[in-house]
Amino acid sequence: MPPSTPARAALIGACLAVAAAGCSFKSVPDPTLSSRDAAFMALVPEAEFDPHFARYLVDDPTKEAPGTVVVDIKARQLYLVQPDGKALRYGVTVGDEAYGWTGAATVARKAEWPAWNPPAEMVRRWPHVHAMAGGPANPLGARALYLSDQGRDTLYRIHGTNEPEKIGQAVSSGCIRLRNIDVVDLYNRVPVGARVLVR
């Protein structure tokens, strides 16, 4: 899903600025999509987004072991650490101040176009939310990585979104959201059992 002309111009400007600063980074090709992925994702309206939140291969700022997922809440970036001092960087939506969280977790399971069963505390806050089958209208989007802490479900997820215009903001109920194309890419790369650090 290439950016529109204004977004492309901003992306080129961002590239030049980063290159001038001496950092190295490059864009990462989109993953191959199944016919279901393509059909469902076509039903989620595209949104302009800051190219700073596009998917890039960058110098690793985390210093964690390869395979570790690191979420930088302040920067609104998720890093998947690669070998050789590199990381894949994805722009994310994070929890707003009231619902954000930090800590360590493990990817306990993964799901494609997951069903959504909002926790009881969320339903109490927002009585209009309800369980939904997977699909383009579902807030979890194309993929979800379910996080656990010592075998206990944290109720937090790394998942896609049906609101891509909010990438780079702090508006979720604590979960980490990516654009659907980005969460498919991440899902394809991260195994069950991977370590996740949110800081």
UniProtKB/TrEMBL annotation:
Give the keywords, sorted.
Answer: Cell shape, Cell wall biogenesis/degradation, Glycosyltransferase, Hydrolase, Peptidoglycan synthesis, Signal, Transferase
Q: Enumerate the InterPro entries for this protein.
A: LD-transpeptidase (IPR050979), LD_TPept_cat_dom (IPR005490), Transpep_catalytic_dom (IPR038063)
**Segment forming the signal sequence:** 1-19
User: Residue limits of the L,D-TPase catalytic domain?
Assistant: 67-199
Q: Say if the entry is tagged with keyword Transcription regulation.
A: no
GO MF annotation list: glycosyltransferase activity; peptidoglycan L,D-transpeptidase activity
Q: Which family does it belong to?
A: Belongs to the YkuD family.
Protein's recorded name: L,D-TPase catalytic domain-containing protein
| Natural source organism | Methylobacterium durans
At the highest ranks, the source species' classification is: Bacteria, Pseudomonadati, Pseudomonadota, Alphaproteobacteria, Hyphomicrobiales
